[in-house]
Structure formats: C-alpha cells, structure tokens
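Hi everyone, sorry if this is the wrong subforum. Our group has a chain we'd like a structural model of before ordering constructs, and none of us has done structure prediction before. Sequence below.
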Amino acid sequence: MALAQLIQSSNQLIIHSHFYIYGDAATETLAKQIGNDIAQHWNEPQANILYKHDWYKLIFEVKAVYEPQLKPEDVWYNTDPKLFFFRIEEYSPLDISFVDGIGSNTGFFKLANLLQTSTTAAHEYGHMIGLHHPKDLDIRGAGTPGIMYPRGTLCDPHFQYDASAMAGQKGGTLDPKHRKVLTEDIQQLKLHKLDYDEAGFAVLGDFTSIYHARYLPKE
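Answer:
Right subforum, don't worry. Here is the predicted structure as tokens:
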C-alpha cells in the first residue's frame, strides 16, 4: 500500500511511503537503514511513467522512524494510506520477513534478514505496493535478478551464494544481495492505470492494519 501523487506542474509521480518501526529489535539506526535502502533501490532505475500522453518522473519518497511507544490502536484505526507499520524481532514465526498480504500496509521483519542484505526491505516493499514473486524461479541465463525473486531462486553462478556450487545445491541459489529493482519491476506496478482523483492522488493496495505482538519461539 502507498499513496501516489501525480504532479502535473512538475511532471512528477511521487509514491509516498512512511514506515513506523516497532518491536524489541527495532532501533532508530535500523529505521534509517530501512528507509534509505528502500528509497535507494526503488529510485535506482530513474524510471519515467507515461500517463495520458505525458511523461512523469517516478520518485519513491520513503521515510522510516522508530516508534517504541506504538500502540495497537495506532495501527488498527490508521486511515492514512502512506503509513506502514512493521515489527522487528530476532525471532520470526515464519523464520523469514513477511508482509500481511500483497498490497498491504503491515508486516514483520526478521532482524537477521535486514542485517544480511539491503534488498530485504526493498523486496518486502515490493509486495506492499502490489508485486508477487515471479512464477518462474529458474532464471539461469536471464542476467541480473529482479527485486521480487525470493531466496531459493536458481540463477547464474555469479549471483549465487557460492559461484562454484551446483545449481539448487547448498550455496547454489540466489544470494539476495544481488537483486535489483529493474525496469520490468516498475512496469509491473501499472502506475498509469491508477484512478487518480482531481487533486492527483491515488492509492495502491488496501489496509491490512495488523499490529504484530511479540512472537515467542516454540519449545
């Protein structure tokens, strides 16, 4: 989920996304890292969008703040489509980071994932603005992996954890650090098909509004 703003006077299409980070493993440093990582990856293509015969420069305006006092009610009753809420913990019930649905505004980061690579937050952000994992997870010979390819994807050797490993064996799958936001990822968002109002605003996705309590490992 996000708030899109079409500014005709400057030919800009801005995607506003503001994260509130909470949880026992959340910190101001991590919040800043998440905001910077997402903005860097999604702005890297320097994409332009054609909308009704005019070209618009696409800008992802991403902020993230640490909010240790966040209350469940702040998430449940939020009506601002640009606000996202993510809990960060060392333990994840799914053993990975996840969102609460495609086009959602809430989710959960596993700390180790964030520390492993800068593409984790950018990948989950892709889900939040409407993107799925690709269906074909064997991209050997296709070059640079797009941002939405998950762990376990088969890829060219130099994109693997271990370039000398056999494909699909230990070390022989995609190392997430090699993922990039590609032009194809931007195209999949179909931003030119959004229903912009008279003020130039449109909403991607919908509210999930799930506040995640701290999960405890099963004994």
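For your construct planning: DSSP finds five helices and eight strands in the chain. The two ends are 35 Å apart (CA to CA).
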